[in-house]
Every structure is written in C-alpha cells, then in structure tokens.
Design a protein that fits this description.
With 322 residues, the chain is of the alpha/beta class. The chain has two domains: 138 residues, Rossmann fold, CATH 3.40.50.2300; 137 residues, 3-Layer(aba) Sandwich (Rossmann fold). 47% of the residues lie in helices and 19% in strands. The protein has 13 helices and twelve strands. The chain has a seven-stranded mixed beta sheet, with helices on both faces. Strands 2-1-3-4-5 form a five-stranded parallel beta sheet, sandwiched between helices. Strand 1, helix 2 and strand 2 form a beta-alpha-beta unit. The longest helix has 25 residues. The N and C termini lie far apart (75 Å). 46% of the residues are buried.
Length: 322
C-alpha cells in the first residue's frame, strides 16, 4: 500500500513538472537570453547608454540569465551591417542598436528579431518614416536622446547675448544631426541671428571645417553628433585658442570641447531601453505597440575649465561636468 501511495505521489509530481515546463514554453519564457549589442563608435555618451542598458537587463532578468554579445563598429557604418548580420545568423533573442547607423543596419537585417534603439535623436528621420507619430511598429522600438532643441537655442541667446553669427558644426553623414541643426537654425534665425552650416563628411576633414567655422563665427553649436563626439580634442584645440565658445547638444561633447549644454542622461535612456528589453523577453510585451521613450529631465551643465579659460560667467542653476 505504501509503495502504491509513493508511486502515485511521484507520478503527480512528475505531471506537475511537465505542466510547468509546458506552460513556460508556451508562454515564450526562457531561463537564459542572448542579446546582441551593436554600438557605432566609442565615446562617453554611447558608452554610458550601453552600460545603462546592460545594468537594467541584469537587474530585471538576473546577471546569470543573460549573455551580451557586444560589438563596436569603430565609426564605420559598413561594419554596422556586418555586426547586424552576425547577430541574425546567431539568432540572438534581441538586438540593441546604439546610434542611428547601428539601428538602420539592424532594421535592414531582420524583421523578426526584436530591435531596440538608443541614442537615436528622431526615429522618423533615422528610419525614413513620414509623419512619424512616436511608435515605429513592427519589430522596432527604443529610446531617444533628443533634448529640447528650442530650449537649447534660447540658452545660447541667453548665455552669449553678444553673439551675432552662429556656426552649426555637424557630420553630413548623420541624418539626425541635420534634423537638430534645422530646428536650432530656424529658432535662432527667427531671433535675428545669422546662422551658417559647417558640415564635415567624416573625421578626416573635421579640422579644416572647424578652422573655418572658428574664423567666421562668434559661437559654434554642435548637436548630438557621434562623429563630432569622437573628435572633441581636435575641435577644442582649434576653438579654445581662438576664444570661440562651443555650445554642445550633449554632455559628452561639452566635456571635451564645450562651454554649456542642456543634456539628457545617456545612462538613463540606456537603462530605460534595458527595462524595455526585459519586458519584451520576460513578459512577452509586444514591441510593435511600444512607443519611443525619452529622458524627461534634461540638465543644464557647464565645462568649468573651458568657461574659466574663456572668461565666461556661469549663471546659477548650472551643474559642473565631473
């Protein structure tokens, strides 16, 4: 009798285990996940977004349950395509694309693997979506690094009231940079300032373009531009001796060559992206309905050493960049 009872208990336990395993499989749950991270280039802002993403994923899924396949394209958009195709061939569970070129390559490589972008200024521009309403649809969503551009433009007027000519310095290969420049230019011109564009093709011609901008302009504006962010030393070595202040679209550029910025936190948007990834992988959230998310709390910051070198007075309400 005891043997029969023991057998029944064992059979019941096995049935429960099979049921739980079947339910987990049916719901799409996994104990471990592989995430491909494609980052366009190394610089402070993108690095912070990647770190925030990884930390959120580990917080939500458990560090032991996730494997990150990290690849950096070193600023080469063609390499972004190679990276994306590699992730698809490995059938990763999700792709995180850090910067516009990485997102574009990932989007072209798969329509089934979930793709989350970060450090993307405007998804409509990046993905050529007309009348973009905030949700990409399909297998793509993510976070944006767009700061309030009109507020940035007004800050330039308030901080540098004597500036009459402003140079827009950006990479012509980055469509989101052109988008930011257009918005800021229209605002400044509406206030009576003269605005000139100084677009460079890549890092090879940036010194020549910066030299011309610094000679022609009272003030230079750089949007959230990845190529410029990787060349801040070159920009600073030209602009600082000429006493031409640079207003930056984000903290990383400001730290390298700028005076002031109204910057979002790249770590925070990366963290938001990581939480979105966990929601998709663990909870089965539908990425096609997930709206693009933003950092709602941009911060006014300044570069102490450059402001001191230029004799620029820092008003109250600004935080020094560490």
């Amino acid at each position: 009798m005891k043997t029969l009872k023991k057998a029944l208990v064992l059979a019941l336990a096995l049935t429960m285990l099979v049921t739980v395993a079947f339910s987990a499989t049916a719901c799409g749950e996994k104990k471990s996940y592989t995430i491909g991270i494609s980052q366009l280039v190394t610089h402070d802002a993108l690095d912070a977004a990647t770190e925030g993403f990884k930390q959120a994923v580990k917080d939500e899924l458990g560090e032991e349950n996730v494997t990150f396949l990290y690849q950096n394209a070193a600023g080469d958009t063609a390499v972004c395509t190679t990276i994306a195709n590699d992730f698809v061939s490995k059938n990763v569970d999700l792709i995180m694309a850090n910067a516009t070129a990485a997102l574009q390559a990932a989007a072209a490589s798969t329509t089934t693997i979930p793709i989350l972008g970060t450090s993307i200024t405007e998804y409509g521009v990046a993905l050529n979506i007309e009348n973009f309403t905030g949700t990409v649809g399909g297998n793509i969503s993510g976070t944006s690094d767009l700061a309030p551009l009109s507020e940035q433009a007004q800050m330039m007027i308030d901080l540098f009231p004597n500036a009459k000519t402003v140079g827009m310095l950006y990479c012509s290969a980055e469509p989101n940079s052109a988008y930011q420049v257009k918005v800021v230019r229209e605002y400044l011109e509406g206030k009576g300032l003269t605005v000139n564009d100084y677009a460079f093709a890549d890092s090879n011609d940036i010194a020549t373009i910066v030299e011309k901008a610094a000679n022609d302009c009272d003030l230079i504006y750089i949007p959230t531009d990845n190529t410029a962010a990787s060349c801040t030393e070159t920009i600073n070595n030209i602009c600082l001796p000429k006493k031409v202040p640079v207003f930056a679209g984000e903290e990383g550029i400001c730290k390298g060559c700028g005076t002031f910025t109204l910057s979002i936190s790249y770590y925070e948007i990366g963290y938001k992206t990581g939480k979105m990834a966990a929601d998709i992988l663990k909870n089965g959230a539908d990425i096609s309905t997930m709206a693009i998310e933003y950092d709602p709390n941009p911060v006014k910051k300044y570069n102490k050493s450059i402001c001191e070198a230029l004799g620029v007075t820092v008003p109250e309400g600004y935080t020094a960049i560490e």
